[in-house]
Amino acid sequence: MPGRTSRVLGGLLLAAVMAVCTAPGTAGAVADAGTTGTIPSVGTDFGRTGPYEVDVDIEAVHTFYYPRTMGRSGERHPVVIWGNGTGAVPGIYSSLLRHWASQGFIVAAANTPTSNFAISMRAGIDVLEQRNADPSSRFHGKVDLDHIASAGHSQGGAAAVNAAVDPRVDTAVPIQPGPLTDPDLMDEPVFYLAGQRDLTVWPALVKALHRDSDHVPAVYGEVRGAGHLSSIGDGGDFRAPTTAWLRYWLLGDENARGMFFGPDCGYCVDSGLWSGWDRNAGALRIPGPTA
C-alpha cells in the first residue's frame, strides 16, 4: 500500500516487524573458523578479503560470484542480488562483488544497465532456487534461500529498495540510491549509504529516503569525501560497512551487530569514515551484542 497510509500500518506492526528483524536467522551462522557447517568469522576486519576463493560465471541475464568451495564443510551460502547503476554492468563493481563472495555470499548480479524495476534482480533468486534443487548443479543444496539481501548502486540502489518488495528478501543495502523508489513498499531493515561529495545523488535525497523508512529499522551512513563513483571497483569506503551489514542480517554475525547496534556501536563513533550518521527509532531498538 503506497504513501502515508502504509507508514501508519507499518507503525502499528512495528513490534511484530522488530520481533523478526532483531533476530537474524542462523542457517549459515557465523562461528569460529574451522567449525563444521558454518561460514567462518572475519573478526571485525570487514574490508579484508574473506576466507573463500571466488569463482565467477558470466551468463546471459546474470553474473554469479560465489565461493569456489561452496558447502565444503556443510555450510549453506546466503544470497545477495545486485543492481547496477545506469548504463553499468556488474564488471564495473567486480571487486566489490568478489569481496562479498569471498565472505561466503552468493552474488547474483543482474546484467542489465537499467535495473530500476528490479525484475532481473528478483529473477536471480528464481535461478538460484532452481539450481539449488537441481542435483546436476554446482549450487545443489548449497544455497541458503532463507537469507537474501538486495543491494545496488545509484539506479541499482533504488532497485535494491524496489527488490525488497519481494517477500524472499530480508534486508536492503541501497548505495547512493536514485529517487525512483518508495520505501513504503518494503518492510525490511535497510542501510542507506550516501557520498558527502556526490553531485549526482545528493546526500539530502538519500536522507529523505531514510526519513521515509520510519516503519522499519533504518540506518543512514554518509561516507566522508565520497563522490558518486567512489563505490565502483572494490567499493572504496563503502566496502567494509556494507559487508558488515550483510554479515549481520544474513549470517547473524555478532561482531557485525556491534558495528551498528547498541549504545557503543562501532560505526556510531567513526567520524573518520562518516560525514553523517543516523539510526532511526527502529534501529535504536535493536540491542547490541550480548557478549
From TrEMBL:
The keyword Signal applies. Residues 1-29 form the signal peptide. Keywords: Signal. Residues 63-254 form the PET hydrolase/cutinase-like domain. It comes from the Bacteria. Pfam families: PETase. The keyword Lipid metabolism does not apply. Coiled coil: none annotated. This is PET hydrolase/cutinase-like domain-containing protein.
